[in-house]
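TEACHING EXERCISE
Course module: macromolecular assemblies
Task: Read the component lines below, then compare them to the predicted structure of the full complex.
Student: A.B.
Group: 4
Components provided:
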Amino acid sequence: MASDFFEPGRHGDADAENGVTDFAVNVQPGPPEFVRAALAARLGDLAAYPTPADTERAVSLIADRHRRRPAEVLLLDGAAEGFELLARLAPAHIALIEPSFTEPERVLRATGARISRVVGEWPWRLDTAQVPDDADLVILGNPTNPTSVLHTREQIVALCRPGRLVVVDEAFADLTRDAGTGEREPQSLADALPAGVVVIRSVTKTFGLAGLRVGYLLAAPEVIARLVAGRRHWPLGTLALTGLAECVGPRGDRYADRLAGRIAADRDHLLALLTAAGIELCVEPAAPYVLIRVDDGLGMKAALRERGFGVRSCANFTGLGPDHLRIAVRSAEDSSALVAAMAQIAADRLLTVPGGL
Ligand SMILES: Cc1ncc(COP(=O)(O)O)c(C=O)c1O
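Instructor-supplied answer key:
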């Protein structure tokens, strides 16, 4: 039903039915072999509760990776759990920088806090003046899903105020690179962690582990203490702790580095194809997905589905509409097939529109 596309709880996985070439979900194929092997090696341990040693190992590898103290690391049952835990801070006024991932709003509505949607104008650069002064919790994505916009560290830090926490969802940061220098994670705040900033990170996208549910958060120890007050014991299972340690350790880091390079090349290919086909790209993308705008986006999506391609409708993102579609960066071959299908659909439309050429 077309109306489903506007439902806030709808995610890309709903657009990636079996049998379609999936451009809708931003999870990489995986997990890589070294992660699989590490997980398989722990199956025999599942009769026992997760051990403190497993937690400490994951925490210490994350701390090393970001040059933080272990006390600044909180392991999560998926980055998505981080948004849920924010409710324990009892915020009074939450500002959501839009367009952005829909889950923070969905889970934080239950707090009863006032929520302001700060809807930026294209090309969605951060504007501190738009954020209500009394917002004590500000949430944004960097790079942002689904626009693929990458804000600068300076723009984000400018949002900080006494009495306010700025939460940066860096779920896709590990695949970002500076287009000129190739430097990885050029705008991530995970290593600097300025006062008043909380960084939420995912490994499920890059390592193809969405089903494992694992992620982490970096914050000041006193913020972490408030986030975990009343949290259950054993929030992450043994396999989640094991998988996380592999992803954030040196081998995982090298893997993410190689993948970031490959995705940058595949994205360049996709952009060249879209440009040649005359398809409107919304902004220069920084993440492993691109946002486009087409006339009758839902019609285009349905026509692509008939040809075996799944793309993400952005109809349910605040500040976007049914003509916005998000396309995951895939192999050059798959991208060529997708864009050829889009061009064909657009050409067929011209023939069927009365007065079309
Ligand atoms: C921007 C963004 N943040 C966080 C998440 C949640 O990630 P995880 O699978 O680690 O819970 C997603 C998943 O779609 C996402 O797109």
